Amino acid sequence: MEYLNQTGKPARFQFASDNYAGICPEAWQSMDEANRGYASSYGDDPWTARACEKLRELFETDCEVFFVFNGTAANSLALAALCKSYHSIICHEMAHVETDECGASEFFSNGTKVLLVPGNDGKIDLSAVEHTIKRRTDIHYPKPRALSITQSTELGTVYSAAELQAIGDFARQYGLRVHMDGSRFANAVASLGVAPKELTWKAGVDVLCFGGTKNGMAVGEAVVFFNRELANEFDYRCKQAGQLASKMRFLAAPWIGMLENGAWLRNASHANNCARQLADGLKGIPGITLAHPCQANAVFLELSPPIAEGLHSRGWHFYSFIGTGGARLMCSWETRTEDVEAFVSDARELAQN
Ligand SMILES: *Cc1c(COP(=O)(O)O)cnc(C)c1O
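Structure tokens predicted for L-threonine aldolase:
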């Protein structure tokens, strides 16, 4: 199906964001199976129980699982569970929690302050975190309590298992709890090829917000508490925030389909491979440089203005919000090789003009 953009040209949305993609067949089929008749509401149904069980199997531990509608809710409610209102949350200055959630973390935690640290390629710099913790220890400063990291990061990079271990050790040393925004956690697992537990609880992550939407579901993220104590009364938080789905089975069921036959990892690997192919294809084209290492499903580019304009006028839709001329191309489970090739060939033609 062809969509037109405002100027009447074909809109080529393929690399705008991974949430431009549709619902993958595995998630769709599970929804369909859950749609045959009556079931108890508010999560008291067999699909929700099974989806939680599947997640426990995946992480090889007895974690507490909650399903919410979106990532903003997952992150902000999880962070609120980690902090009191006079605490602070430390995260990267490019973190979604800070830049794209409209202050939800502060809102749902009743004012917990978010403190920002820099770091290359979207990863927090632990020495900057240490400085943020140590620069003040008096009562007038919001007490650091949570460290929030994003895996894979907002800039398409991933923290290695060793880096996560170092972050976990650091957090324990300073009494910080660790939150992981895993909106693209599957892409990180696919990229690193290690067991999910190595990137989470074994490295000291207390709570993971595991993304389903960007990996092929219609809607829904799983909030996975490895530290079960922190999940105490989390169900009430979800309900109060309007995140307790009455037809919960439709948030839960897609996880069953995605986890049972490996689609969650297949989708993520596919998206990562497409991004790699795109980055490789664009390499060496004059006027195009890779802005960050391509380690997951995003490609960040510095484009010369004529190339950027040319691509837009040929209908390619992608976000340009980082640096001057910066462009972000996201791949998804639905990205097609033809689209990657067409984009590369358009970029190459424009570079020759
Ligand atoms: C997309 C995204 C989320 C979730 O966003 P919602 O629109 O609230 O579902 C969270 N973190 C990161 C890094 C994201 O890219």
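The pocket of pyridoxal-5'-phosphate is lined by residues 70-72, 96, 150, 154, 181, 183, 213-214 (CB under 6 Å).
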